[in-house]
């Protein structure tokens, strides 16, 4: 496309400068606050952050919910994506449209809908009481279960779309050939589908895990102050305590967790491919 590499670099230079000015520089300034204490550069602030039992609890809760949401999204996503790609073209387009539709609705509206569904007088509790499974409504809101459901519903479409793209690029005769050779469906998934769609799983897993870590609206509404996550803790440190040093530490932890998840998924996919 370009006669030499310099022409391509010259065209990309304005975008790179713009990204550096409006993103890298502000983020660098924010993150540097966590490494400065009393005029010197140190990691003592990070050690102090994890000395707090509250901070450790919030960290492990965020990591746990992110991992569970990602794992459940992968299981549901594979089943849904495989069912969609085996449909005729017209029906496939309609189903993909249904998957994309929730992404067109504001996360705030989608999250508030769960308050109506999971509330004490919501559909779930009314059904439980009507079936006689409980005499009184069960508290679902402001629990880890509510946050998990909200995050799963929020990011599951991203996993499904990533896996649909990967499955559509898979050879059409791969699964039938494995079945003809005597493989059961578990063997077909582990030996054929999973290796051939690992790129889609890495992309979908990164999007879902990173989104679960950094989402604020859903944990704030469905979890409240009883189920703090790192992102809601960051918001509290900035708006309530005006503690930008702690906020920069939390931001750095979230970035490290996101990049680590992506590298881990890539490493697992590469190791499986080598085997």
UniProtKB/TrEMBL annotation:
<feature type="transmembrane region" description="Helical">
    <location>
        <begin position="138"/>
        <end position="164"/>
    </location>
</feature>
<protein>
    <submittedName>
        <fullName>Putative spermidine/putrescine transport system permease protein</fullName>
    </submittedName>
</protein>
<keyword id="KW-0812">Transmembrane</keyword>
<feature type="domain" description="ABC transmembrane type-1">
    <location>
        <begin position="59"/>
        <end position="265"/>
    </location>
</feature>
<dbReference type="Pfam" id="PF00528">
    <property type="entry name" value="BPD_transp_1"/>
</dbReference>
<feature type="transmembrane region" description="Helical">
    <location>
        <begin position="244"/>
        <end position="265"/>
    </location>
</feature>
<feature type="transmembrane region" description="Helical">
    <location>
        <begin position="97"/>
        <end position="118"/>
    </location>
</feature>
<dbReference type="InterPro" id="IPR035906">
    <property type="entry name" value="MetI-like_sf"/>
</dbReference>
<keyword id="KW-0813">Transport</keyword>
<comment type="similarity">
    <text>Belongs to the binding-protein-dependent transport system permease family. CysTW subfamily.</text>
</comment>
<feature type="transmembrane region" description="Helical">
    <location>
        <begin position="65"/>
        <end position="85"/>
    </location>
</feature>
<keyword id="KW-1003">Cell membrane</keyword>
<dbReference type="GO" id="GO:0005886">
    <property type="term" value="C:plasma membrane"/>
</dbReference>
<feature type="transmembrane region" description="Helical">
    <location>
        <begin position="9"/>
        <end position="31"/>
    </location>
</feature>
<keyword id="KW-0472">Membrane</keyword>
<keyword id="KW-1133">Transmembrane helix</keyword>
<dbReference type="GO" id="GO:0055085">
    <property type="term" value="P:transmembrane transport"/>
</dbReference>
<dbReference type="InterPro" id="IPR000515">
    <property type="entry name" value="MetI-like"/>
</dbReference>
<feature type="transmembrane region" description="Helical">
    <location>
        <begin position="201"/>
        <end position="224"/>
    </location>
</feature>
